[in-house]
């Protein structure tokens, strides 16, 4: 039986030429020292394959129409067999892909693997990184819930800031002058056809380049890249000590990739897909749109940038990031590769990570957002059930002060905490500030009677350290 | 693969080279032609939203006496030319303020900072944006936060006792 199978395979292989074509590719020699940090690229590809498979499955039921998309997603999540776990895998797979492609890029940069002769590997990788962000973002919009609808508006607004052509691009993003029946089907086409097509082409070229130039050897301090001699040296090294990629190096890619896929599925089962927000009704205004985690840091940057710099930042920021990434192999494609000899490279990766982490934490907290859930302060905080202090506490809530100012842990964080403001400010200072407002505070001069002002100040003056 | 020498090894005449040159150009030209005749409708369809004419129509949002003087209320209306499958997305909201017996102002609900929906606080007489904390006074002027411009206004009129709003594009803050 075994012999017969073997013979059948031999005939098939002979006619199809599988071993003849793929054999040398799989067994191409790789540097023996390439170890665990070389698995990030293949793991990104594995995550992408998971996305393609689960995406196709979800497309069996998802209807990309503004009228039905939300209901089909509800059905997929709550009623369809395996629907919840498929959505979960697609979401966690996207998260894994973003994380892995970022780590892969950082690893390649830190080890100087983008230097001669692998500049084109880096450039195709940068394109893949950018379209991965776009496909993740468009995927979030396909949830077509309240957050998605407003995120489309936010995207159009940002596009609008591009000088001169911004209006046309915003129009293009919305597929009309406002949300319409066309908006979602176009995002769907971008998400499932246009961008995946770009990814397939660039993954193909990227892999071809990896084979063409060979896997970069781990850097050694004091062994700089010299374009004049590198290729000859690399091939001599492979000749001397190269190992076949399959299975000597590939087993690590398989083990790590399978680990990633297992983690994605476990998270999908245990945590599930992100909750769908309210229905996509643009007339329901109690919306609080936030991007998914991988863009939360950018959302924070848009809140924290000084308004004067904002237009420049919104356009120049992403553009500058793209230009810098694409310029890297042109600026330095030779010399030291080892991170221990490239302190600026290490520092710049550190700064980028620190920046994203800090902004990300700020984005999670979002202290700049008014706290619409703020309720009337409890009586034990106010310290009075009637009289001007109690009336002032009510005004503190009704006039919206509490949405931005916290007292004893209740209220928003946009403005200063007023728990013990009575110790800090005099009655005159309070009056002036309330009537005139400030940079981030509205003036209440036209919206408060003298009696209301007295009551509010009586309440604020009673806020002292106990 | 290699330069100009055919597999048989015989040297080529000038005519042969011209012929190959012609065939190469022919193939490239024909491919370009085929690409173009398919690309024109493709690109045209892709950028169709830019070629469509903006249509504006007056939509009734309620009778005049529905709105008390001095109040701001949310109204909603249907876009100018909703597609049959648009669903709830065909509807748009606006904040309608009644300043006098026949004086109405309709504000866009989109914050001029990044387009998030602003909420009206009746007692505070302020519009507040949940995204980045933009604040507007009751007349739509910026009170605080990052918005670069006042809340945009929709044209509004009273006809036969009905308040009507002119449908308008989503207000996008642009730069020149």
Structure description:
The complex is a heterodimer of chains A (466) and B (176). Chain A has 466 residues and is mainly α. Chain A is 66% helix and 1% strand. The termini of chain A are far apart. With 176 residues, chain B is an alpha+beta fold. Chain B has helices at 14-46, 48-51; strands spanning 58-63, 72-78, 91-100, 103-108, 119-121, 126-128, 135-137, 142-144, 153-154, 156-159, 162-166. In chain B, the strands form three sheets. Chain B has a four-stranded antiparallel sheet, with no helix packed on it. In chain B, strand 7 and strand 8 form a beta hairpin.
Provide the fold topology.
The complex is a heterodimer of chains A (466) and B (176).
Chain A: H1 2-16, H2 18-26, E1 29-30, H3 40-59, H4 69-78, H5 83-110, H6 119-141, H7 146-160, H8 166-174, H9 181-213, H10 230-241, E2 243-244, H11 245-270, H12 293-304, H13 307-331, H14 343-365, H15 379-382, H16 387-398, H17 401-404, H18 421-424, H19 427-436, H20 450-461
Antiparallel strand pairs in A: 1-2
Helix pairs in contact in A: 3-5, 3-11, 4-5, 5-6, 5-11, 6-9, 6-13, 7-8, 12-14, 16-20, 19-20
Chain B: H1 14-46, H2 48-51, E1 58-63, E2 72-78, E3 91-100, E4 103-108, E5 119-121, E6 126-128, E7 135-137, E8 142-144, E9 153-154, E10 156-159, E11 162-166
Antiparallel strand pairs in B: 1-11, 2-3, 3-4, 4-9, 5-6, 6-7, 7-8, 10-11
């Amino acid at each position: 039986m075994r012999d017969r199978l073997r013979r059948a395979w031999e005939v098939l292989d002979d006619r199809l030429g599988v071993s003849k074509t793929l054999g040398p590719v799989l067994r191409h020699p790789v540097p023996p020292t390439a170890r665990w940090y070389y698995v990030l690229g293949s793991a990104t590809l594995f995550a992408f394959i998971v996305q393609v498979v689960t995406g196709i499955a979800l497309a069996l039921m998802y209807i990309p129409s503004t009228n039905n998309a939300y209901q089909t997603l509800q059905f997929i999540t709550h009623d369809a067999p395996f629907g919840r776990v498929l959505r979960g895998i697609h979401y966690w797979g996207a998260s894994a892909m973003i994380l892995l492609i970022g780590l892969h890029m950082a690893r390649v940069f830190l080890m100087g693997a983008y230097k001669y002769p692998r500049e084109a590997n880096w450039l195709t990788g940068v394109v893949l990184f950018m379209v991965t962000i776009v496909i993740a973002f468009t995927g979030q919009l396909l949830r077509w819930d309240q957050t998605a609808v407003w995120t489309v508006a936010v995207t159009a607004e940002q596009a609008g800031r591009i000088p001169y052509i911004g209006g046309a691009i915003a129009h293009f993003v919305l597929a009309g002058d406002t949300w319409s029946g066309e908006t979602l089907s176009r995002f769907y086409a971008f998400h499932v056809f246009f961008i995946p097509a770009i990814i397939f082409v660039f993954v193909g070229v990227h892999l071809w380049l990896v084979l063409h130039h060979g896997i970069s050897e781990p850097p050694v301090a004091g062994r700089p890249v010299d374009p004049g001699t590198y290729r000859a040296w690399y091939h001599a090294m492979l000749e001397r000590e190269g190992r076949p990629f399959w299975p000597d190096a590939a087993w690590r890619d398989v083990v790590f990739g399978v680990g990633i896929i297992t983690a994605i599925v476990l998270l999908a089962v245990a945590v599930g897909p992100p909750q769908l927000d309210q229905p996509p009704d643009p007339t329901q205004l109690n919306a609080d749109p936030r991007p998914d985690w991988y863009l939360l840091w950018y959302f924070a940057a848009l809140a924290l940038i000084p308004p004067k710099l904002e237009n420049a930042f919104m356009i120049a920021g992403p553009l500058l990031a793209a230009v810098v990434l694409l310029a890297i192999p042109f600026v330095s494609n030779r010399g030291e590769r080892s991170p221990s000899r490239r302190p600026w490279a290490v520092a710049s990766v550190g700064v980028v990570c620190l920046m994203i982490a800090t902004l990300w934490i700020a984005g999670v907290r979002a202290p700049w957002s008014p706290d619409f859930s703020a309720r009337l302060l409890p009586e034990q905080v106010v310290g009075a059930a009637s009289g001007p202090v109690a009336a002032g506490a009510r005004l503190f809530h009704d006039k919206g002060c509490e949405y931005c100012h916290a007292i004893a842990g209740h209220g928003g964080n946009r403005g200063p905490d007023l728990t013990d403001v009575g110790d800090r400010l005099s009655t005159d200072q309070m009056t002036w500030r309330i009537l005139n407002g400030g940079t981030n505070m509205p003036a209440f001069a036209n919206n408060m009677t003298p009696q209301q002002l007295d009551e509010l100040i009586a309440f604020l003056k009673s806020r002292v350290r106990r | 693969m290699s330069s100009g020498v055919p597999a048989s090894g015989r040297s080529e005449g000038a005519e042969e080279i011209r012929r190959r040159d012609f065939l190469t150009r022919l193939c490239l030209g024909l491919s370009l032609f085929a690409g173009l005749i398919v690309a024109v409708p493709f690109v045209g369809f892709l950028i169709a939203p830019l070629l469509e004419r903006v249509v504006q129509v007056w939509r009734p949002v309620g009778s005049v006496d529905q709105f008390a003087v001095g109040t701001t209320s949310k109204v909603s209306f249907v876009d100018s030319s909703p597609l049959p499958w648009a669903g709830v997305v065909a509807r748009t909201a606006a904040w309608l303020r009644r300043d006098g017996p026949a004086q109405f102002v309709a504000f866009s609900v989109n914050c001029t900072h990044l387009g998030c929906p602003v909420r009206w606080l009746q007692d505070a007489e302020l519009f507040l944006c949940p995204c980045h904390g933009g604040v507007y006074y009751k007349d739509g002027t910026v009170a605080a936060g990052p918005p670069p411009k006042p809340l945009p206004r929709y044209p509004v009129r009273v006809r036969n006792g009905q308040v009507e709003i002119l449908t308008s594009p989503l207000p996008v803050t642009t730069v020149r």
